[in-house]
Write a structure and sequence with these properties.
The chain is of the alpha+beta class. 23% of the residues lie in helices and 28% in strands. The chain contains 10 helices and 24 strands.
């Protein structure tokens, strides 16, 4: 189809994409001065009355459901050749499929997306509708003043639940459709959508579609460290026997939400829980001074120079390898997971602060924070270190540390984001506990010892 100039009052800008039955265009509503997406029935279906009706039924469902979790229909019209079109918000951030193609999602982000997708499907089920084609490319992302919005879209295969026993045509997308959808005249119910939600969850967490049913490879085999209850939920949703699946989208979504909020999935290193109040990168030199004590061969790291780093406000002075002091965050405060008293103050120094939480083994750096006094006795006990949203697996080595300033325990994970070390250390001079996290490409305990020895309260 050649690019038209307008659809009604909507000025066409460019083509966005095409599916089996329709084409979508980016347009502009000059009257309201806003971008919109216009979905138009494809030309080859112009004279197919049943396809016409399916297209219009999609618009009706979306309009009647009128949910923040679904694409909304703002307007509808007909072209001179009798093809219908309807007007929707423009999803400027693409689809979840685009997001998965760009990066591996952190666990919390994947669970957030899945929760919001599930809420959209729950709205459809309450409306009496089965979607039948839930997949990442049919979930759109839109920016808004309050953050990213998730919109379930493309109801071209949607059918009323009341007529489920009368389906006469197989519908869906292989890899996401339930086994019963592959049989014409299959007796479907909302558990077909639950299977699709399980398939989407599998891909959000692993980056891959699940195998064809029956699915026997759990997502944790591709992404070790996932919570066991999450693994079990996804595998139950993907069961070939729909009687083993959660009964509907709400039940599935409620369990995803509970897993996301559970302590087991929220236990991470303190640094991954925090957001910066202020970032300082280019101005790092103003807060970094060379230490008078250089690292010597006796310290086990010949030729490695350390620098002192101090937050603009706070009690901590750190000693870090000078090569690491390229960027830093100071004045960190609790930011997520409902723990408003996680730390009193924190400082992150790293070669690349943006990649700190992504599990990039090439990043070297130090995060230090003072735990509140009421957490002092427990130190960092109970924390499961997480890099790139994946809990660290494998062996852990423990050792004690004691010098004139600090006494406590050090944990080392050799296979977690390079070489990850955590420590909980009690001050010998004040009623405070230091939480320390060190990442470096390889194991150098002497560097960790030097960082601890050079950390002091002022």
């Amino acid at each position: 189809m050649a690019q038209p100039d307008t659809f009604g009052r909507y000025r066409v800008i460019r083509h966005l994409g095409s599916g089996s039955f329709a084409t979508v265009w980016l347009a502009h509503d000059d009257r309201l001065d806003t971008p919109v997406a216009v979905k138009v029935l494809a030309e080859n279906w112009t004279h197919q009355l049943d396809i016409h009706q399916r297209f219009l039924e999609e618009a009706r469902i979306l309009r009647q459901a009128d949910s923040a979790w679904l694409v909304r229909v703002h307007d509808i019209g007909t072209l001179p050749d009798d093809r219908p079109y309807f007007v929707m918000p423009y999803a400027d951030q693409g689809s979840v499929a685009d997001l998965i193609a760009r990066k591996r999602l952190q666990l919390d982000e994947a669970l957030r997306l899945l929760t919001e997708i599930g809420q959209g499907v729950t709205v459809l089920h309450r409306h009496g509708t089965i979607h039948r084609d839930i997949k990442p490319s049919n979930v759109l992302l839109q920016s808004s003043p309050v953050g990213q919005r998730v919109l379930v879209a493309d109801l071209g295969f949607a059918k009323a639940i009341d007529g489920a026993s009368g389906f006469t045509q197989a519908a869906g997308t292989p890899g996401y459709m339930s086994p019963e959808q592959g049989s014409p005249a299959g007796d479907l119910d909302v558990r077909a959508d639950v299977y699709s939600l399980g398939a989407v969850a599998y891909e959000l967490l692993t980056g891959r579609r699940p195998p064809q049913p029956p699915v026997r490879v759990p997502p944790s085999r591709l992404r070790p460290g996932l919570p066991r209850e999450l693994d079990a939920l996804i595998m139950s949703a993907l069961s070939a026997d729909r009687g083993q699946r959660p009964p509907d989208a709400k039940a599935f979504t409620d369990r995803i939400r509970a897993i996301r909020m559970s302590p087991g999935s929220r236990r991470r290193t303190w640094a991954s829980r925090l957001r910066p109040v202020g970032r300082r990168t280019a101005a790092v030199a103003a807060a970094v001074t060379a230490l008078a004590f250089g690292t010597t061969a006796a310290a086990g790291s010949p030729g490695l120079e350390f620098t002192a780093v101090r937050a603009a406000a706070g009690d901590l002075h750190l000693a870090v390898p000078g090569a690491w002091a390229q960027q830093f965050h100071s004045g960190l405060s609790p930011g997520v997971d409902g723990e408003p008293d996680a730390v009193d103050d924190g400082l992150l120094v790293a070669t690349d602060i943006d990649a700190w939480g992504d599990g990039d083994g090439a990043v070297s750096g130090v995060f230090a924070a003072l735990l509140p006094r009421e957490r002092g006795a427990g130190g960092a006990d109970g924390l499961t270190p997480t890099v790139g949203a994946v809990p660290c697996a494998g062996r852990v080595e423990r050792r004690t540390f004691a010098d004139r300033r600090w006494r406590g325990e050090v944990w080392y994970w050799p296979d977690c984001g390079g070489a990850l070390t955590m420590a909980a250390l009690r001050s010998t001079t004040a009623d405070r506990t230091l939480y320390l996290e060190v990442r470096q490409p390889d194991r150098r305990p002497e560097v960790v010892n030097r960082i601890i020895a050079g950390t002091r309260l002022v």
